[in-house]
Amino acid sequence: MPEVEDTRSYSTTNESSELPSENTLFGKYEILKLLGRGAFAKVYHARNLKTGQSVAIKAVSKKKVLKGGFAEHVKREIAIMRRLRHRNIVKLIEVLASKTKVYFVMEFAKGGELFTRIAKGRRFSENLCRRYFQQLISAVGYCHSRGVFHRDLKPENLLLDENYDLKISDFGLSAVKEQIRPDGLLHTICGTPGYVAPEILARKGYDGAKVDVWSCGVILYVLHAGYLPFKDPNQVVMYQRMFKGEFQFPKWTSADLRRFICRLLDPNPDTRITVDEIINDTWFNKGHNEIKFHDEDFVLKEETQGKKCLNAFDIISFSSGFDLSGLFDEAEPSVRRERFISEQKPEKIIERIDEEVRRTENVKVKKRRENGILLEEHNGNFILAVDIMS
């Protein structure tokens, strides 16, 4: 199956059609409204113009990412999200890029952030806490089975779909097993105060799966109580309480839930409950079947079987090592490159291009090669080079 690279050169460039301020993105997505913004990115609600499907688009500024030294983080986030296909994880649909931005096109979670449901001290019933915690652990356990550790689990990164089911988002601080050092641990200091595990703060290395379990424990406590377990105006005091595992339960907490949360918020990672132990716990399993993690249950088979047309992102992300190095490379501003897959033979592709050129008055064939063709506009302002790699 040949791979075709379409390289177009223009005398002038105009990226206005690629920018959300013009209300459309690459002529494919209509930008509806701004949902939120961060240091490097803005998130928009958008609509696929062809299908009408609602999507969320995260527009990441290349300039800000490069200046902050976070290009590798963005590449890793794309590669990680491409690995994951689970009903409780926000799906990455595709990645687009312009000269100035990288766009994550993702599944749209209509219900918004879980955080807004528990803001201002509101809390959930124990049964509702259990439902969301079961969904959270299902997704987290799946991530761990794929060698991915989120490292920033918190209600702000948990979204709700139209059925109010939970979806994990924002894998920007995630790690993969390839980052584990020879001592068997991760060492990057990251996370959000109030949710970060004490062993990360200790700066001695940590197990990615165990820090995710700690954060899940904090989330469960917040859903149940309406506030953080170790909350204190003085951050030093808060961290001291975390190291000691000192927190109190509200009076409405059942004995079974108290026991379960204590196992999740065990400051000693060696004795902290594991995901396997969680799914066998009596509190967790009440009214719920045991969760089992099998890759084939979550991979979207239609994406890997019988798919005859792949976009450039598919080609990149299916390749060995998820090589995304080209995303932030400095390219000539007047050159646009595209890749696509075709099942036709190289000679048939060139023959088809030749036919199209003959129907066009202002374009001519400048040069033919065995596996390529070079086209030029009569005034020289436009060049199209097609290289076929079989």
Automatic annotation (TrEMBL):
It is an enzyme of class 2 (transferase). ATP binds at residue 58. Its EC number is 2.7.11.1. Keywords: ATP-binding, Kinase, Nucleotide-binding, Serine/threonine-protein kinase, Transferase. It comes from Hibiscus syriacus. One of its GO terms (molecular function) is protein serine/threonine kinase activity. Signal peptide: none annotated. It catalyses: L-threonyl-[protein] + ATP = O-phospho-L-threonyl-[protein] + ADP + H(+); L-seryl-[protein] + ATP = O-phospho-L-seryl-[protein] + ADP + H(+). Residues 29-284 form the Protein kinase domain. This is non-specific serine/threonine protein kinase. GO terms for biological process: signal transduction. Residues 305-329 form the NAF domain. InterPro entries: Kinase-like_dom_sf, NAF/FISL_domain, NAF_dom, Prot_kinase_dom, Protein_kinase_ATP_BS, Ser/Thr_kinase_AS. Residues 9-20 have a biased composition (Polar residues). SUPFAM superfamilies: Protein kinase-like (PK-like) (SSF56112). CDD domains: CIPK_C. Belongs to the protein kinase superfamily. CAMK Ser/Thr protein kinase family. SNF1 subfamily. Coiled coil: none annotated. Its cofactor is Mn(2+).
